[in-house]
Structures are given as C-alpha cells and as structure tokens.
Amino acid sequence: MAQPDTLQPANQPALVGVMGWPVAHSRSPTMHNAAFQALGLPWQYLRLPVRPEHVAEAVRGLRGLGFAGANVTVPHKQTVMAALDEVTLEARAIGAVNTIVNRAGHLVGYNTDALGFLRALREGGFEPRDCRAVVLGAGGASRAILFALLAARARVTLVNRTLARAQALATEFGPLFRAPIPTLTFADLPALQTALDDTDLLVNATSVGMHPHEAASPLPSAIHLPATLTVYDLVYTPLETRLLAATRAAGGNAIDGLGMLIHQGAVAFTLWTGQPAPLSVMRAALTNG
Ligand code: ATR
User: Fold this and answer.
1) Which residues pair with 107 in a beta bridge?
2) Contact assessment for residue 118 and residue 128, using Cβ atoms and an 8 Å cutoff
3) Is the pLDDT of residue 186 over 80?
4) From edge to edge, which strands make up the β-sheet containing 155-159?
C-alpha cells in the first residue's frame, strides 16, 4: 500500500496536475485546489490534457518543469508506466498508475485506488479485514478493488457478465494472494443469490447504473438483498444509484462512490505534500463544486 512520503517543504510554491485525454471533466483540480487553499499551501493543481502519443514526453516534462507530481487518468494509466523511473509493486499488480511522485527528479508511479477504497469502506463503517466479499465486474476498476480486498485477507467471489474475463482475473490474482477466487455470471441466479446470502460486502465495480443509465442495476431484479449486507458502489454519478437505494430499502448499509474518489486523492495529496489531507474540505468541494 502507498505510504506517505515527504518530498519537499510543502510551504514552497509547487505544481501538480492531472494528465488525461480528455481531462476537462476531471473533478480532481477542484478537490485538490480546495485542499491546498484550506491548508494555506501555495500549490496549484492543473488540468494537463496529454494526447496518447505524447505520454512519455509529458512525463519527462513533469521532471523538466519541476512538478511535485501528477495524477494520471484515462487513457494513460497503463501506458505511463514505461516512462517512469520506478513503479510500486502494488501499481504493477493492479496494472495501472494513478499517481506520480517526483522525488528529486526520480519519478515514481503509485496506485492509490486500493488504499483509497479500503479507507472509504472504513469511513462507511465497514471493516474489510477477513470479510467475505462479492465483487461485480472484471475490468480496470475491479483490479484495484480485488487487490485491496485480497490484501485485507477477504474471501472474494467475482461476478461478471463475461465469465472468461472474471476467470482470467481470478487466475491472475488468486495465486498472488494464495486465495482461490470463485467466479460466476449474473445469469447463474441461484449461485449469485447464494453468494450474496453468504457475504458481508458487495462491491459494484461495473459501470452499470452510471449516468445516463440511472435506471439500471447490475443485479438481476429476482435477486434479494440481505439486510445484513454492506454495499459499496463505485459509480458516483449519480451518488444514489438504484443499487444503493435497493440496499437501503432492504435495511443494508449503502456507501456511495464519492468516498473512494476522495480517499484516493487524499493518499496522493499526502504522498506529494507529506501532510494529512483535509477530507471534509475535499468532500465539500466535490459536492458543491
Ligand atoms: P472500468 O475500467 O471502468 O472497469 P472496463 O474495463 O470497460 O471499465 O470494465 C467495465 C466492467 O463493467 C466490466 O466488468 C463489464 O463487463 P464485461 O467484462 O462483461 O464487459 C461491466 N459492464 C459494462 N456494461 C455492462 C452491462 N450492461 N451489464 C453487465 N456488466 C457490464
């Protein structure tokens, strides 16, 4: 997991930013600039639109321009790795870098999603250590969730529309953590219901339910949600997804996707500045901004 790392005096002016293509939609500048301001740090967080063919040059530019670091978003999270001096084991296993730290010219790639997710769960009143979990989805987002849960020694069942994709992920991550990862599809209703009846946590790491498809739920309508369940939905547009509304209606604990966005940013903030991130300021900036 990413560890805080003090790099330069945070009271000196410094630049960070988010590299993506496109990057206009990113809410990270709002969140981080509010945090810098709240702590009185003379730092600025910029949008850095980078064409895919210019990723390596842009990363070198961070060093040349003396940036303290950067966030990396779609579609550069994988390709950026080759241009870095070092990539943490965790980011390698997840297969994506979302944070770069410039350590005196040595560029290190981190992934703060897994730790951000675990912190968001704990903030939502759920302790992931040794829990039973069902994860929906086997794409990029699911890799960080799976890594986080397996690192917390959870027993995970993986559900995906395309079984082969779930199986490939289970085959890759299972041996890494010496944990068998059962896989199934949404079509296998009895097995899905049994998995949900026997779990503590359900995580939606698919894009189902995201704007403009708010009426959709990743779970088939015949599925019954136990009242004892905690449900984390990575989708945060809208904040109250159909899945989370159904969880609340069933008496369960529903945690919205904003927490992971804030906490992955907070981990990056601390890696850059060496200071704890002002979480409530960041949440307010995202909900009001
Ligand atoms: P991300 O990086 O956000 O995870 P992704 O790699 O494209 O994006 O993965 C999207 C995930 O949502 C996948 O698990 C995908 O299922 P498939 O592997 O079967 O494609 C899942 N997903 C997307 N649309 C879906 C839908 N309509 N029903 C069920 N699952 C869906």
Assistant:
1) 102
2) yes
3) yes
4) 183-184, 155-159, 132-136, 201-204, 230-233, 253-255
Structure tokens at 132: 């039973």
For residue 15 the two structure tokens come to 């630049």
Mutate to test the pocket of ligand 1, among 76, 146, 161 (most ligand atoms within 8 A of CB): 161
pLDDT tens digits, residue range 216-274?
999 999 999 999 999 999 999 999 999 999 999 999 999 999 999 999 999 999 999 99
Best residue for ligand 1 mutational test, from 113, 206, 210, 235 (most atoms within 8 Å of Cβ): 206
CA distance linking residue 275 with residue 166, whole number of Å: 38
Residues in the chain: 289
204-229 per-residue burial string, b: 16 or more CB within 10 A, e: under 16: bbbebbbeeeeeebbbeeeeebbeeb
Strand, coil or helix: what is 158? strand
Q: Which residue's entry shows tokens 């979302």? A: 98
Provide the token pair at 111: 């992934």
Residue 196 φ/ψ, nearest 5 degrees: -75, -35
Q: Which of helix, strand or coil describes residue 220?
A: coil
pLDDT digits (tens, 9 = 90+) for 125-150: 999 999 999 999 999 999 999 999 99
Contact 195, 159 (CB under 8 A): yes
Q: What does the alpha-carbon distance between residue 145 and residue 94 come to, in Å, rounded to a whole number?
A: 9
Question: 170 near 105, Cβ under 8 Å?
Answer: no
Q: What is the pLDDT of residues 35-52, one digit of tens each?
A: 999 999 999 999 999 999
Which DSSP category does 107 fall into?
E
Pocket of ligand 1 (CB under 6 A): 137-142, 160-162, 165, 206-208
